[in-house]
Amino acid sequence: MTLLQLIVAELIGLFIDDGFLAVVILLIVAVAAVCAWLIHAPLLAGAVLILGCVGVLVASALRARR
Amino acid sequence: MAPERGASHTVIDWLAIAPAVTSSFLASLVEIVEAFTIVLAVATVRGWRPALAGTAAAFVVLALLVLCFGPLLEQVPIHVLQLVIGILLLLFGLRWLRKAILRSAGLIPLHDEAKAFARETASLQGAPSTDHLDWIAGLAAFKAVMLEGLEVVFIVIAVGAGRGLLIPASLGAAAAALLVLIIGILVHRPLARVPENLLKFIVGVLLSSFGVFWTGEGLGVDWPGTDLAIVAFMAIFLATAIATSAVLRRRAGSAT
Hints:
heterodimer, A: mainly alpha, 3 helices, about 0% strand, B: mainly alpha, 8 helices, disordered N terminus
C-alpha cells in the first residue's frame, strides 16, 4: 500500500469504523433536514438529531456485543 | 445595564470557547501521545536524526495542507460549513465514543502505548542493519506524525471553524503538543500512564455534542439556550455512554 493510499484509508477510517453507525447517522441527518427544510419544523429537526444520535450510539454499542 | 450585558457576553463567549479549547486539547493529547510513542521507538533504535527528520517532514506536509486548504474554508458559506463539519463531527465523535464505551466495558482491549512501543521497536530491530534502515525509521516517524497530525488538524478545524474559534482551538492543540513534548523529554519513555480511554470517552462526548450542535445550526435549528445547548448535549451523551457501558459490562459479566 503506497503512503498516499494509506493516508486516504486513514482519513476514511477517521469517520467510518462501524458501517451501521455511519449509515444511520447520515439517515438521521437526512430526516432532520427534511424536518427543517421541507416541513419547516426546525425544533423537530433538532429533536430528531439529538435523540437519533443517542439512539444509534446505544444500538451500535449493543450490536458490537453480539 | 451595559456592564451586565458585557458580563453576559463574556459568559457566552466562554461557553463557546471553553468546550472548543478543551476538545482540541484533549483530543490532540491522545493523538500526540500515540505519535510520540512511534517517534520515541524510532529514536531508541536508530537515533534521533531519522526520528526528527521524519517528524519535521510530516510537520512541513501538514503545514502545507493547512496553508493550501485553510483559506478555502473562508470561501464556504457559514451554514454549509457548519453542516458539513457537523456531520463529520458526528461521524468522528460517535465513532470515538462507541469505541471508548466498548473499551470501558472490556469488549475490546485498551490501547497500550508500552505495547505499541515494543511492537515498533521490534519491527525496526528486525530489519537488516543498513543505511536503508535510517530511511525506513524516518518513514515510520513521518507516517506516525502525519497520520496522527491529520486527526489533530481535522479536530482543530472541526471544533474551531464553525464559529471563528480556529485560534483558540489551535492553541489547545499546541498546548497538548507542548505538554507531551515536555513530559516525553523528562521521562524519555512511552507515556503509557496517560488514561487514554478516559480521554477518548470525554472527547467523544464533547465532539458528538459539537456535532449535533453544528449540524442543527447548519440546518437552521435555533437551539433553545443557544450555546448552553452544547452543555445539555454533553450531559445527555455522557449519561448515555456511562449507562451503555454499565449495561454491556453487566451483560459480559453474566455471560461468563
